[in-house]
Amino acid sequence: MVSRLQLTxxxxxxxxxxxPHLYKEIQGLLLKNKxxxxxxxxxxxxxxxxxxxxxxxxxxxxxxxxxxxxxxxxIWTHVLARDNAIQHWRQMMGPTKTYQxxxxxxxxxxxxxxxTDTRNSTHGSGMSSLTHHTGPSCIFPIL
Length: 143
Prior knowledge:
Elements: E1 5-12, H1 14-17, H2 20-32, E2 36-43, H3 47-53, H4 63-70, E3 75-83, H5 85-93, H6 98-104, H7 109-113, E4 122-125, H8 136-139
Antiparallel strand pairs: 1-3, 1-4, 2-3
């Protein structure tokens, strides 16, 4: 039976990008877990663009902090492919809450590299809709 590739968006956040050895370690984990890098781009988000990207969280207590952090330095964005890519990427990342990741999923990316709930090293989006504001087309508009 032939498996069908699924796409997902992976973002490596500024707290990791400023430490190239950690970025390379995460990149290696992705390759080891059979992800294909379809497209990659290192970018700096403006506060406006970060606000648009995280619009679904607007009004929540952490929104401003998240927008400020995501626009504080460069990020790596990747469209990844593999079978069940969304599920596998989310499993690799671990829980959003770093404390929970460190104690319940210590081998996850956030368990190993997360500092706080905002500085948790990675972001992942599904790709059920190419036009969704938090999916790959937000970062890679030509998709």
